[in-house]
Amino acid sequence: MRVMRTISLLLILIFFTDTGAKAHDPQFSQFYSAPLYLGPSMAGSANNGRLIMNYRDQWPNLSGRFLTYAVSYDQFIESINSGAGVMIIHDDAGGGKLSTTRAGLNYSYRIKASRNLFIQPGLQMYYYQRKIDFDNLIFSDQYFGEIILPGSRETPPDMQKGHVDFSSSLLVFSDRFWAGVTLDHLMRMNSTVSEDLNYLPLKFSLFGGVKFELYENILSREEQNITLAYNYKKQTDVSQLDLGAYYFREPFRVGAWYRGIPVISESTHNDAFIVFAGLNYNQFSFSYSYDVTVSNLITATGGAHEIVLMYTFNTSNIGGLRNRVGAVPCPKF
User: Which end of the chain has less neighbouring CB within 10 Å, N or C?
Assistant: First the structure.
């Protein structure tokens, strides 16, 4: 009961007061499996139409579950050198007591800087909504021994906040490397809303990587490669760096990541070690990852489970599209 009361009071503070506690965006361990969330420049980055579904169950051992769902579709449009996509993310925190929903449209434009180098700026416009389920909260005046009485407080008139927001990114890539930068919650840069608690803090991200080809059997088209990648994020005073590697040999992919290395931050905590495995079958892809918590909460949280399903529409070979305009070599899981 104390846990429930603490969570309830914490949610109220985060949602309605400026106590120094700032809300942050949900995250995915398999961040390249949520490309439109990583940055709008990733729209159309594979030259194929992609339908992706993401599911994350974080800290299952705690009394309040933290579940995140996402679905996205993106496609490169060769006639206008552009990528387009749509993305919806829903996040439930504390067993549904605090929920956020984000639905947006993505656009990117591909510029051929040289024979093997491309520049791809992108923009996302989305609607962001936060909501508290007041009926699911328990306050101190409801406790009577082991009995929980009906609440005596009136329901606040406005427990739901929503607004339009924007993110922008820039991606540079060749057939072997890529690097990008994303600025999210651009409405925070508007002086008229910069002090409004309904708007999340500005988020800055740097991501990229390099792919090393190991072997390719031309007759069987069997490919092997190792991909090294990183993702650095900063939101308010919290900085986080993910470093890891994938090994791919058709149809399997395995990988390992370390998340939480402090960078330009006063906090010196580590977060998780992540293991990953995936499988391709024709145009379907399945991947699973598990976060092994390595902070002081190692025995309490239960880590995190993440599942990704992807269906790729095989349009990249039409007219030799992949060879003419290139594709970002980042992991396709």
Answer: N
Full-model pTM: 0.81
Domain 2-325 in this protein, CATH class: mainly beta
Q: How far apart are CA 41 and CA 183, in angstroms?
A: 11
Q: How far apart are CA 23 and CA 21, in angstroms?
A: 7
Q: What is the DSSP annotation of 40-77?
A: GGGTTTTSSEEEEEEEEEE-TTSSS-EEEEEEEEEEEE
pLDDT digits (tens, 9 = 90+) for 189-208: 876 666 666 688 899 999 99
CB 104 within 8 A of CB 124: yes
The domain limits of the chain are 2-325
**Angstrom distances, CA of residue 178 to CA of 37, 206, 218, 239:** 17, 11, 25, 22
Distance CA 230, CA 209 (A): 6
> In the prediction, which pLDDT does 200 show?
84
- Residue corresponding to tokens 């040289």: 114
For every residue of 151-177, DSSP letters joined together read: P-SPPPS--EEEEEEEEEEEEEE-SSE
**β-pair type (49-58, 66-77):** antiparallel
Q: Pseudo-torsion of CA 275, 281, 282, 286, nearest 10°?
A: -40
DSSP secondary structure letters along 75-121: EEEGGGTEEEEEEEEEEEETTTTEEEEEEEEEEEE-EE-SSS-EEEE
Kindly give the residue spans of alpha helices, DSSP state H, lying in the chain: 2-16, 35-38, 321-325
Residue with tokens 């996040």: 91
Residue 260 vs residues 15, 30, 58, 250, 321: alpha-carbon distances, Å = 25, 14, 15, 30, 38
Look-up of token digits 């009961």: 1
Q: Answer for the pair 100, 132: CB distance below 8 angstroms, yes or no.
A: no
pLDDT at 10 (0 to 100): 45
Here the tokens at position 92 are 């439930």
Report residue 123 as tokens: 């923009």
DSSP 318: G
